[in-house]
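Worked Example 4.2. Consider the chain below.
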Amino acid sequence: LRARMRAASDQERFEGAAEIRDRIHAVEATIERQRVVSERPLDRDVFALAREGNQAEIQMLFVRQGKLLGGTSQPLANVWMDDAEAISSIVSQYYAEDRVVPDEVLLPVDLEAREALEAFLAERAGRRVRVVAPKRGELAGLVRMAEENARGALAKRVQSRESLEQALEELRGR
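Applying the procedure from the previous section yields the following structure tokens:
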């Protein structure tokens, strides 16, 4: 695919090269998602938060049987509480819906209400669920990965909003 992309670019078929580039990214993302991220075959959900002012992005990664299967991010607006409160609220709301509760939930910050959250999750799952804010090792690496994804998604959203605002200003000026 990379050779085909270079050939298309050399022939100045830039749209074709861009389509091939997007296919390459999709293949790489699939491989990345299925990467083994833990020696222990546990199910884990990883949460992270990125903020800029009152705008935030929550990133969730899903690890099943030690393999990173995917993730999702959600934009949040008008977030005025601190990170620990925001994460606690988001996690509680997320699992209040009919969702699969993993063996462990990894968070970027320690929660005062960690034990209450564990009890809530254990009740939903019908088994013990650990809530952990890892500081080092492979689990901390998963949290860092989620944080990087959250920061990237937030930056992209902020940039998109700024581009839209700039375009609107230009239109108003005409």
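The first helix runs from residue 2 to 10. The mean pLDDT is 86. Compare this with Example 4.1 before moving on.
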